[in-house]
Amino acid sequence: MRLRKMKFDERLFLDIDLNSLLTLLVVYREQGVTKAAGRLEVHQPAVSNTLAKLRCYFCDPLFTRHCRTLLPTPKATEIVKRLEPALLEIQKVLMAAAN
Fold first, then answer.
1. Domain spans of the chain, in order of start
2. Helix (H, G, I), strand (E, B) or coil at 75
3. Taking a C-beta distance cutoff of 8 angstroms, is the pair 25, 80 a contact?
4. Contact, 91 vs 26, CB < 8 A?
5. Fewest CB within 10 A of the end CB: N or C in the chain?
6. How many other CB atoms sit within 10 Å of the CB of residue 76?
7. What's the whole-model pTM score?
8. pLDDT > 90: percent of the chain
9. Rounded to the nearest 10 degrees, what angle do helices 18-30 and 33-40 cross at?
10. Residue 72 and residue 93: Cα distance in Å, rounded?
């Protein structure tokens, strides 16, 4: 089976930890840093630090606080909507390898 040629720039991946994209997705879904930290089984400061790096990377606050909830910015929503299918595909690959 021949793999089709993928057109992507590997250098872009050197600037970002792909786990941070998972963190973004979980914060988006959980609407909070503490809940996301619990789901990811990491400490809350680790999630906060990851979000700070992502804010710089994407030049956007990503979330705004409303009462006790984090609301995504339009840019965060766009990023998550584009990332979610890709992360689901990665999950399928990982699940197939585990079986």
1. 17-98
2. helix
3. yes
4. no
5. N
6. 23
7. 0.86
8. 79
9. 120
10. 28
CB atoms within 10 A of CB 27: 27
Q: Which two tokens stand for residue 71?
A: 């609301």
CATH 3.40.50.300 fits 17-98, yes or no: no
Cα angle value 85/86/87 (rounded, 5°): 95
User: How many CB atoms are closer than 10 A to CB 84?
Assistant: 14
- Please name every residue paired with 64 in a beta bridge, in sequence order, or none if there are none: 71
- Assigned token pair, 60: 């956007």
Q: How far is CA 59 from the centre of its chain?
A: 15
pLDDT digits (tens, 9 = 90+) for 30-65: 999 999 999 999 999 999 999 999 999 999 999 999
Q: Which two structure tokens, joined as six digits, stand for 96?
A: 């197939």
